[in-house]
Amino acid sequence: MGKGEELTTTKYLIHAQITANGIVEKPDVVGAVFGQTEGLLSNDLDLRELQRTGRIGRIQVNIHSNSGRAKGEIIIPSSLDRVETAILAASLETINRVGPCEAEIQTTKVEDVRAVKREQVVNRAKEIYKNMVESVGPASMKMIEEVREAMRVHEISEYGDDRLPAGPSIHTSDAIIVVEGRSDVLNLLKYGIKNTVAVEGVSVPQSIGELSKKRTTTAFVDGDRGGELILKELLQIGEVDYITRAPKGKEVEDLEKDEVLIALRDKVPTAQFLANHNILNDSNTKKENNNNRHHRRNQRFRHNEKPPAKEPEIEDDEVTLMKDMLKEFEGTGCGAILDEALNITKEVEVENIYEEIKNIEGTADTVIFDGIISQRLVDVASEKGIKKLVAFKSMNIVKKPQNVKLITIN
Fold it and tell me: pLDDT digit string (tens) for 11-41?
């Protein structure tokens, strides 16, 4: 059997150390291995028969003599299974003579050749991939970016009569992210964030203002003067729940994935943001802005919707507990589904809250979340048997089912 054939069939390599009290040669060692294991094991594991049928390869012996003693290594290639190979390796240790000399053989390890080959394949694949990447020139990179851009553009949607650039989830998500321009929407799409809408200019469209009053709204603006102007305009015509900004001097469209995720994670409630940043010119402007918002809200209640029905009485302790639990979620953009004992059975993200409630299986008692209770949420909660919805506020609730209690802080 040729060396090439051995390499293709070998699964394991048996490594053993040999020491002999005298000078011995390679043929002596090979003869001892065959002779002294003969008849020890069953015919199925007879070394001569195994070698004849190709199930073990040629025995390799590397031995040298020094000061009247011989020492070396024996290597036996095996294509037997793991158990048979282990038995064969153990049988070598029964050999106690080589030629005329006393000897000892000890198996040191059984090497899995396939594992070594797999490691070689992985290392070579890494090398090939590295060369492929290095060989991609500027022209190729431009083509790759064009294809990626085309894929993102294919996903982009539009919102309202102004046909504002938006992510595909803008029509269904209960939480939205308002950004500055189309490039910002595309960049966030690249990182899988699909509930965005762009204002496309410093003058914020009225449709965005109205949308912000119906959804949990996060303003995500550039870290420059332009971002401040957009934010100021948005605060005056809409109702922003959270604010976050790109790092100072950077634009949302240029952010890497980690920077986007950190910015969204570190968003803060609007009141807290305004307390820490001088976005609005002075306290009078801020006060006027808040008064305008309250006036608009009251106008809506008078003209567009019925006033919310009075909440059924709930025990004060329970309300207090619910509100305390809600404060734990403030500013996180998350929520939780609770059972009757108020144990959290699942944590959820606000932007997915409608789908999470819709897909509830089994019994759930309460949904508590960092956002706004909308009519859609009330309807789906009633349908799924949810008894309590707990959030910072409720908005546009025209029809309230008797079986759902709403608990809000604002």
Answer: 899 999 999 999 888 888 988 898 888 777 7
Provide the pLDDT confidence category of residue 148 given band limits of 50, 70 and 90. Answer: low
Q: Is the pLDDT of residue 1 over 70?
A: no
What is the reported pLDDT for 149? 64
CATH architecture, range 316-408: 3-Layer(aba) Sandwich (3.40)
Q: What is the pLDDT of residues 112-136, one digit of tens each?
A: 888 888 888 888 888 887 777 666 6
**Domain residue limits, the chain:** 3-115, 147-301, 316-408
> Under CATH, domain 3-115 is a member of which superfamily?
Ribosomal protein S6/Translation elongation factor EF1B (3.30.70.60)
Q: What fold does the segment set 147-301 form as a domain?
A: Dna Topoisomerase Vi A Subunit; Chain: A, domain 2 (3.40.1360)
Q: Residue 249: which region, alpha, beta or left (left: phi > 0; alpha: psi -120 to 50)?
A: left
pTM above 0.85, yes or no: no
For the chain, give the percent of residues with pLDDT over 70: 83
